[in-house]
Design brief:
The protein is of the alpha+beta class. Strand 4 and strand 5 form a beta hairpin. The chain starts with 7 loop residues before the first strand and ends with a helix.
Length: 155
């Protein structure tokens, strides 16, 4: 298996389901074979979400990292909770916003930075209503139609 240079696993569903209020970049506390699977781009964050435990630590839940094929009995669990690493003031402000306003924290993108560490871009988000989602679809369709008309007009 060839290791890819730039890993960029996105959660496209999150931008459709939620209105993004604020973004943060967090480190992930990983065990041995998890980083190897991420470098092979064998991870999914579409169904995952973030929550605080009783000690005020932020965890990502339901993030799927496929077992490493050469891991044998040292392999990790594919869907375990993984701790996110942020500064204390960022954690406090996030916890305050989640508890007070009923917002949620969703992962947007999993990537590997220049130093080789796995990072997770998370967002403080608010759930969209059904009619908001329909508006987004209508806007997307109209932009596509407009681009098609411009292309035919210029050709």
């Amino acid at each position: 298996m060839a290791v890819q240079k730039n890993i960029n696993i996105q959660n496209k569903k999150a931008r459709f389901e939620f209105e993004i209020l604020d973004k943060f970049v967090a480190g992930i506390q990983l065990t041995g074979t998890e980083i190897k699977s991420i470098r092979l781009s064998q991870a999914r964050i579409t169904e995952s979400f973030c929550e605080f435990n009783d000690r005020g630590e932020l965890f990502i839940v339901n993030m799927y990292i496929q077992e490493y094929m050469f891991g044998h009995h040292f392999n990790h669990k594919p869907k375990s909770e993984r701790r996110l690493l942020l500064h204390k003031r960022e954690l406090r402000s996030l916890k305050k916003d989640v508890e007070a306003k009923g917002n949620t924290i969703v992962p947007l993108r999993l990537f590997i930075n220049d130093r080789g560490f796995a990072k997770l871009e998370i967002a403080l988000a608010k759930g969209k209503q059904t009619h908001d989602k329909r508006e987004v679809l209508k806007e997307r369709d109209s932009k596509r139609d407009l681009a098609r008309i411009k292309k035919n007009f210029n050709a």
